[in-house]
Design goal:
Length: 693
């Protein structure tokens, strides 16, 4: 049945089959896996006169008028007036106007469902779900839950819109009912109260009740998340079984001395992170851990403890960062800690003088260097370690898989510590990093003040500049960040270079420097060094300063065209201030604000926790956009589950997957036979280089 072509369905000939192929439907299995994107519950229809603003509602009414507005010089829109005995509802479309104009005719009856808004005194829905009803033919407006399927414009115009798709699938159930082999064991189905697979298929397409629809959705979401987590569980088991690593036997003089020289107390979250890393390094099993922490939470110090433990055990460490500015910043911080301990730290980047580079490579190969800090230059073929035991990769999502692999190939199974300062929602961590041990530093150092954040219009900029002057008069420093290096003819955005020249006129007497990505590494470092040592009052730049700039005396961040930045970038930029003892401030200067931009800036004003902001970001932009291409593969491959909204389902599925693998690492038990077969067919080999993190 699964591989049978859809032409086996009555009414589906070559023409319809060709159209369905456009959306990936060629076999019966493809058709049954084409799940509805929404449902219209016609049993809970409301009268138009009782609609409440903001609610999701379903109404039934007849078309009174269809009006197309706009045209060649104005944006087109379609307004349809629907009425029943209690009132009238306006339905509006701003996209697909031509199609919807032909879909509605005066006098036709429709069932529509969407979010209710009010335009003046009249209720309105924008781009609702809709279904034409044949009331004269006896079709009841209150008859059951209707599945709504996605459809392209070409399919709709060919009669395969949501209603046409419903007809095809209904005929398929009549002609060739689903006969899928079960992919979960009887024990799992019973333990988690899951619908059998074929009943779940019937109920997801044609639910007999809301309760049965919920159970069908739960079954498919649970199964999908179970196999995704099974992938992680098997990968983790394989790493632990086959990738033994050097056992760190002891913590000695270096780690004790590092702890003793700290001028402040570590947070409990930092201490817990160090304990978890120590436990991994002493286990004899290769560490594969992600260290997550908000900006300024002290991840670098935690990594330093891991590297001093490596030194205590006669092993070298490598620390790789994505940019030269960030790598050099880490180098300076680590050198400050390492020198009093007698540890040697080297720096390697792409544009070093040959003599300096040669000395670093020689010291590394002879074992004279304990820690190597650098950019992707660390993974070049000429770089050879004497005894690499620990690889630390900062902002790991900025490196490709092959780059991370090249570092790990410098030794035989070194321990791995991945770090990120871009908070990922706790609800996502389990779904994205299911095979990694995840440590979260969710506390900021004691005494760290929250950054006061304010939104302001471009017209209020003079007040921002007055405040900037007052901060500089107190001996503080500031940043101004622009979204572009040079002005664009296509976008009316202020650019760093042009604005820098204007600022020199506006802020006379202020010592300022310019930094952006088009400058050479040496030029950028010279400007950064001047700012770091207080020779500059104001640093003007682009998002090149998003990470890696740590100047405790900087107390003011001004972000121009803040509406153009995502939440993660805004939070990272704000994190460049508030790193010292002084109260710090962030001004979000904006021009025009759309709904999403307004929500982002409002969140920045009211929330300082990067993890909370990341959850809002995920809700606004979607999971894939938040995580980026490198991390979102497993997430974007989900067809029906949502790892944010379905977190509880994922937790249940994850526990079940890991319990099975703990008992049966190779899935050899006969009770897991169907799980093994399904996994091998759909997941095995899907992700290569799987143990790199």
């Amino acid at each position: 049945m699964k591989d049978m072509p859809i032409t086996g369905i009555r009414g589906v000939g070559p023409r319809k089959a060709g159209l369905l192929k456009e959306i990936g439907i060629e076999t019966m299995a493809d058709l049954y896996d084409f799940f509805p994107r929404n449902y219209l519950d016609r049993r809970t229809v409301k009268n138009i006169g009782t609609l409440v603003e903001g609610e999701q509602a379903t109404v039934v009414g007849k078309v009174r008028s269809v009006v197309r507005q706009g045209g060649r010089y104005a944006k087109a829109r379609l307004k349809v007036e629907l009425f029943d005995k209690t009132g009238a509802l306006e339905i509006v479309w701003f996209r697909g106007v031509s199609y919807f104009f032909n879909a509605f005719r005066q006098g036709d009856a429709f069932c529509v469902s969407g979010k209710v808004g009010y335009f003046g005194q009249r209720p309105q829905m924008q781009h609702p779900e809709f279904e034409r009803l044949d009331l004269e033919g006896g079709e009841s407006p209150h008859n059951g839950i209707l599945p709504v399927y996605s459809s392209s414009e070409s399919l709709k115009s060919s009669g395969l819109g949501p209603r046409g798709m419903r007809g095809v699938i209904k005929q398929a159930f009549s002609d060739i009912p689903p006969q899928f082999n079960e992919n979960l064991s009887e024990g799992i189905i019973s333990q988690h109260d899951l619908l059998p697979i074929n009943k779940a298929y019937r109920m997801i397409h044609f639910p007999s009740s809301p309760e049965m629809l919920d159970r069908a959705l739960y079954r498919f979401k649970w199964s999908e998340l179970f196999f995704a987590q099974l992938f992680f569980a098997l990968r983790r088991a394989a790493i632990r079984a086959d990738r033994s690593a050097v056992r760190f036997q002891r913590s000695g003089n270096f780690t004790a001395a590092l702890y003793g020289m700290l001028p402040y107390s570590m947070t409990e979250a930092q201490k817990n992170a160090v304990r978890e890393i120590y436990r991994d390094l002493k286990s004899g099993i290769r560490m594969n851990r992600l260290l997550q922490g908000d900006v300024g939470s002290g991840k670098t110090l935690v990594a330093m403890f891991a590297m001093t433990l490596a030194a205590d055990n006669g092993l070298q460490s490598a620390f790789m960062a994505p940019t030269e500015i960030l790598a050099f910043q880490h180098y300076m911080v680590m050198q400050k800690f390492a020198e009093p301990l007698g540890l040697q730290v080297g720096f390697l980047a792409g544009r070093q003088q040959k003599k300096e580079r040669r000395e670093v490579l020689e010291d590394l190969q002879t074992g004279h260097l304990n820690i190597l800090v650098g950019t992707h230059a660390v993974i070049e073929e000429a770089v050879r370690f004497d005894n690499l035991g620990l690889a630390v990769i900062d902002e790991q999502h900025r490196f490709g898989v092959m780059q991370r692999k090249a570092l790990l190939d410098k030794a035989e199974n070194p321990h791995i510590l991945l770090m990120t300062a871009t908070p990922i929602p706790r609800t996502l961590s389990m779904g994205v990093f299911g095979d990694l041990d995840v440590t979260i530093i969710d506390q900021l150092p004691r005494g760290r003040k929250n950054v006061i954040t304010r939104c302001c219009r471009e017209s209020d900029k003079s007040e921002v500049f007055d405040f900037l002057r007052s901060e500089i008069a107190r001996g503080r420093q500031a940043y101004i960040v622009y979204p572009l290096v040079e002005e664009s003819e296509k976008m009316d955005l202020k650019a760093a270079k042009e604005s820098f020249c204007q600022l020199r006129e506006t802020l006379q007497g202020v010592r300022m420097g310019l930094i952006h990505g088009q400058m050479s590494s040496r030029e950028k470092e010279q400007v950064m060094e001047s700012f770091r040592f207080g020779k500059l009052d104001l640093l003007v730049g682009t998002t090149v300063i998003e990470v890696g700039v740590d100047v405790p005396n900087a107390t003011l961040m001004v972000i121009e065209h803040a509406e153009r930045f995502g939440l993660a970038q805004l939070h990272q930029l704000r994190g460049r201030v508030g790193r010292g003892e002084h109260q710090s401030y962030c001004f979000l200067v904006h021009t025009k604000l759309g709904t999403d931009a307004s929500e982002r800036l409002s969140a920045m004003e009211n929330i300082g926790d990067g993890f909370k902001l990341s959850e809002i970001d995920a809700a606004l932009r979607g999971v894939g956009n938040v995580l980026g291409k490198e991390q979102s593969g497993m997430v974007s491959g989900l067809k029906i589950a949502d790892i944010v909204k379905d977190y509880d389902i994922m937790r249940s599925a994850r526990n079940a997957a890991f319990e099975i693998v703990d008992r049966d690492p190779q899935l050899q038990d006969h009770r897991n036979e169907m799980i093994r077969e399904y996994y091998i067919k759909h997941y095995h080999g899907k992700h290569t280089l799987a143990d790199i993190g």
